[in-house]
Amino acid sequence: LRNMYDQYQKDEKSNARQHPDRVIPNTQLITAVMDCWQKSGAPDAGQRAEFLLNWMIVKSGARESKSVDAETSVIAVRPNAHSFSTAISAWARTRTAGKASRARKLLVL
Among 12, 23, 38, 91, which is disulfide-ready with 46 (CB 3.0 to 4.6 Å)? Predict the structure, then answer.
């Protein structure tokens, strides 16, 4: 996802629209990946979902601090309520010690 996001940003800055059928990483796609992690049963699913949530927060915060023209093509990676609930659920499904406190920390992000 990071590579996809970086490539998209690079293409937009250079106005290179070489791949009109490319998948653009947005909130829905990233949350879907988080959902896959939480359903996977992987021992590190909570960590991976939390990482993606934090990554979305950082990317959306960085974009908000800059003045962006409304006509500029900017992708939306701001986490929504589903993103947060998916990350919390990923922690709830893991068998990791301290999962409750990690899930609780996501409530105050």
Answer: 91
Nearest-angstrom CA–CA distance, 96 and 76: 32
Residue identified by tokens 């879907």 is 32
Largest CA distance in the chain: 47
Q: Which amino acid is at 50?
A: E
Question: pTM for the complete prediction?
Answer: 0.75
| Cα dist from 18 to 4, 9, 29, whole Å | 14, 13, 21
H/E element, 93: helix 81-93
In angstroms, the CA 51 to CA 64 distance is: 20
C-alpha–C-alpha distance, residues 68 and 24, integer Å: 18
Decide: helix, strand or coil at residue 39: helix
pLDDT in tens, 9-28: 777 777 666 666 677 788 99
